[in-house]
Amino acid sequence: MTHADDRPVVTRVESFALEHALPDGGYGTAKGRVSSRICTLVKITTSDGVEGWGECYGVPALLAPYLQHYGTQLIGTPVDEKENFAQRAIAHSYHLSAGGLHIAALSGLDIALWDAQARTFGVPIGQLLGGIARTSVPAYASIGYVTATGDLDEFRTQIQGAADEGFTAAKIKIGTSVRADRQRSEITLDVLGPDGQLMVDYNANATTDTVLRSLRALADLDPQWAEEPLPPYQRDGWDRIRDLGIPIAAGESLYTRFGFRDPIAEGRMDIVQPDVTKCGGLTEAKLITQIAYTWGRRVSPHCWGTGVAEAACLQLLSTLPDLPFGEDTGTPQYLEFDRGFNPLREAVLTEPIRPTGGTVNIPAGPGLGITIAEDTVRDLANTALSVDVR
Length: 390
Hints:
alpha/beta, Enolase-like, domain 1, TIM Barrel, four-stranded antiparallel beta sheet, 16 strands, about 40% helix
């Protein structure tokens, strides 16, 4: 099947629901622990026989109907009509709002379309998405998760593991209490050493008054940013928190350019964090970064998935300009590198993405630059939740 103008079109869409149960009650945030790591991978095939892969954020059982719906609509669509397809779908589902699992489903499909198009041309996605500005990025360890025990020695062991891998920057989970927030932050800086960089993440497990108390207790430790101190709809609280002078990071709970527009324009965040697997894919993530730069905000994408999500995030990072900084000033374009136990993260790739001394090389091959371990993915997939349309 080809389009009238001979552009390659989508001929098949498949999805694969993956889950791995976590031991010892799992781990997570102050908001709550997760008992398993989950993901949904998406594969498209084009009329030229090219394959593209993507990843969706969210509960696979809830994503499956959306992927069935949008996957059916995608059949026969030219591979390069990513934005038109997604925006038409969003417009038709306006009553669902511009955020939610339907956008996460579109995100995975968008990533897969970018992967297929770039593979058609034999170039990395970054070359088509805006041009490659860098071939490697510094990474911070996303670590220090909340566990069932809450033991501080166990917490220190987590941080030490990241330091042993060469990380000098780490983002930790806080928000359980002012005292615990201080203790966990002090341990992190102690392990990372005098040049260590600390980021803290509340995952919105706070009210305005409690997060103000916590941030005041951490101010002398000079955190690089405080992430998701409140839910995005608590607008008055965000204004009060900004007055403390600690940079605020947010965005992982927002969807599409429409969800990011007002929070960025109104100055509710200093560091903008779109997640390519939920915000609308690489198409929307790139637009969101441009909105961020328009208002002089920094960008540090959220990334908490498998190696497919990591590769997509790295392709986005490869295209981000150094603006507004010059060659010798400013802050790095960080990759969030999840160090929580997640066998799926490495299992889905034939060559997993690995850090070296706190730096990650951006895959340089065609598309996402990775090779999917498809036999493994198919073996791991929960076929009852997987979708195959053609």
